[in-house]
Design brief:
single chain; alpha+beta; 7-stranded mixed β-sheet; 28 strands
């Protein structure tokens, strides 16, 4: 095809199409036919004339309108009958966009076009409620009754979260979230799972519409790891990435305590994973074996001269900031503020049991809510503020369901928090807590490992001279330091047409058609060489067209991109079998290296807080060659552009105070 369908280019063949189809006599369709050209049912014999088929070739395809109309007419199943699914994906996207319950299926697939695949497609239709004529598939067959199952009146699914960890070589942990431990000689790993289904109280903690694990829960998890490791005091806990809990999936947690230091302290990391996604580093901490003794019990409550505050106003302000709490987290019962600005609150745990936690996350989180009415907050006041850094956290008593909280400003906007029970006995102490405002859009969907990005995979280059190629263009031959040759060879290298994209694509199309028409070159591969495919629109258009031709003729075409700005490659660095979209560079070879070669591969985006591409050239390590440095920078730049301009940061901005 030497024109672009459904565009103005088709007008060149308008008269030819109409003349060729003029003798065709249209008939009414025997099967109901919904036209993506007319956007309606075709029920007459006047539609399929020559003009209709020309418009079918020239006008835009109204495929989404056709699918939407069919769904509106009550269609519940869409079946694509073709050698390979082409439009099923678009139909599924349209169905999903309108929120309809419609099954989208296909018949055959490439390299799977036999009777088995067709019967499999009929089976898919059957389970969707369509009733195929099975007698036409298996003449003479008859239906039989299936045997009944032994579990017809007995539940046989294992309960969620059940099982003994010791059967897997793990130590059981008595905790609502952390259920197993992997002890080592010097290290300790605790694992667990959480979800809105297994821990329903999580649904009462939402930030801008997302269910987020409260920072108080992270304190409890790390504190429990400290208890298991013999380091019960959290000297410092820094929250890096919020744990967003999806509605229909669980979050797997992994807490690792490292080797004890000379002072007995341990470094801790908290990682999470959703589904098949990668592990995300959510928090780091330092645990110490000993802390300060509990403060003396308070005498007067509330302190003399403290002014009562309106609790209803407190939660209205939190709601307006995007922090919406359900009943379990609305634990503040009474609230006061003294002349110095310190806050005093009575907090209870409604609708949940404290068992298993040191201090229940909902109870500790509710102790932070009074900050919304005080003068102790940090950062922007029009955004929800989340805990960022906890310092000096000690739990003195477990199982409390009612506490008295004293919040005192200390340094640089940090807050000291003391918790006691109603009798004044110490429950917990937070020597310092720093909050940080959350910017717009900082909370997204959790990583499920389905985001693909291009990565450059290194390819080996030959150690010796390479034969079997010819370079026809004198300028390209000089670049490669070889003599120009028009002889036949397994690989023929030609420079890519450049210039304006349309003109470059036309010249590339002519080059491809000429190559395919020459039967003498049927066993040779045409290698189109680009130099600036990432920056030159003309070369990019050429490369795209050649790759399309390569899909239809895999052994006849290839694209080779030479990195610009480095020492020209030598002939011994030419790969034996150029691959599509290969990028390589050849620097001077002080250690006998003949260069660097790589090809792009689709890979899952790493689910970490570290950046997975860089907007600036990467640092050049000692001993690295200029070509390797150049190619690494170019591939990083391409990933940045291919990612749509999204730029992750090593430290999320909402963690900056």
């Amino acid at each position: 095809m030497d024109y672009a369908s459904h565009s103005a280019h088709v007008e060149r063949v308008q008269e030819r199409v109409r003349a060729a189809l003029a003798p065709v006599v249209p008939r009414p369709p025997a099967v109901p036919f919904f036209s993506s050209v007319e956007g309606r049912w075709i029920d007459g014999d006047d539609a399929f004339d020559a003009d209709y088929w020309y418009r079918n070739l020239r006008e835009p395809v109204r495929f989404d309108e056709a699918v939407t109309a069919l769904v509106g007419h009550g269609c519940t199943t869409l079946l694509e009958i073709s050698p390979h699914p082409v439009v099923a994906t678009g139909a599924q996207e349209t169905v999903d966009a309108i929120g309809a319950e419609v099954a989208v299926l296909h018949t055959l697939r490439r390299d799977e076009g036999g009777p088995d695949q067709l019967v499999r497609a009929l089976a898919h239709l059957h389970v969707q409620g369509v009733r195929p004529d099975w007698s036409a598939v298996w003449p003479g067959a008859r239906p039989v009754e299936l045997p009944t199952t032994a579990f017809v009146t007995e539940r046989y699914w294992l309960p969620a979260g059940g099982g003994d960890p010791s059967a897997l070589g793990l130590d059981a942990v008595e905790h609502p979230v952390l259920r197993a431990a992997v002890p080592g000689a010097d290290r300790l790993v605790l694992t667990g799972r959480l979800s809105a289904a297994t821990h329903p109280w999580l649904a009462d903690h939402t930030v801008e519409g997302h269910v987020v694990l409260p920072g108080a829960a992270m304190v409890d998890l790390v504190s429990r790891a400290g208890d298991e490791a013999g380091c019960p005091v959290i000297d410092q806990l820094t929250l890096l990435v919020p744990v967003v809990v999806p509605e229909d999936a669980e979050v797997r947690l992994r807490i690792e305590a490292g080797e004890p230091g000379t002072d007995g302290s341990r470094d801790v990391t908290v990682q999470g994973r959703v589904g098949a996604g990668g592990w995300t580093l959510h928090a780091t901490a330092v645990l110490t074996p000993g802390g300060d003794p509990p403060p003396p019990a308070a005498t007067a409550w509330p302190p003399a001269g403290a002014e009562p505050l309106d609790v209803d106003e407190l939660y209205e302000r939190l709601d307006s900031a995007g922090l919406r709490y359900g009943p379990v987290f609305r634990g503040v019962r009474s609230l006061w503020r003294d002349r110095a600005g310190d806050l005093y609150a009575e907090v209870a745990l409604p609708g949940a049991e404290p068992g298993g936690f040191g201090v229940h996350p909902a109870l500790l989180d509710a102790c932070l809510h009074p900050l919304a009415l005080g003068d102790l907050r940090t950062g922007a006041q029009d955004r929800p503020a989340l805990p960022f850094e906890w310092t000096g956290v000690q739990v003195h008593a477990v199982g409390a369901d009612t506490v008295r909280a004293t919040l005192t400003g200390v340094r640089d906007g940090a807050v000291r928090i003391e918790l006691t029970d109603p009798a004044g006995t110490p429950v917990a102490l937070v020597r310092s807590l720093v909050l940080s405002p959350l910017p717009d859009g900082a909370l997204g969907l959790p990583d499920c490992g389905d985001l693909l990005l291009p990565q450059w995979a290194p390819l080996p280059l030959p150690d010796g001279p390479v034969a079997g190629y010819a370079v026809r263009d004198p300028a390209l031959a000089r670049l490669l330091r070889v003599s120009p040759s028009a002889d036949a060879a397994p690989f023929v290298l030609v420079p890519a047409p450049s210039g304006p994209p349309a003109a470059a694509a036309e010249r590339a199309l002519a080059l491809v058609q000429e190559w395919l028409a020459d039967e003498r070159r049927a066993t040779s591969t045409l290698v189109v060489v680009t130099r600036r495919v990432l920056d030159d629109p003309g070369e990019a258009a050429t490369a795209a067209l050649v790759r399309c031709a390569q899909l239809e003729h895999p052994d006849r075409f290839a694209v080779l991109d030479l990195a610009d700005g480095v020492t020209p490659p030598s002939p011994r660095c030419l790969p034996r079998s150029p691959l599509a979209s290969r990028r390589w560079a050849s620097p001077p070879a002080p250690r006998g290296s003949c260069g660097w070669s790589g090809c792009p591969r689709r890979a899952n985006r790493p689910a970490t807080s570290a950046p997975f591409w860089s907007p600036v050239p990467p640092a050049r390590s000692a001993g690295s060659s200029p070509g390797t440095w150049c190619t690494t920078w170019v591939s990083a730049t391409w990933c940045w552009r291919a990612g749509g301009g999204r730029r992750p940061r090593r430290r999320p901005p909402w963690l900056r105070s």
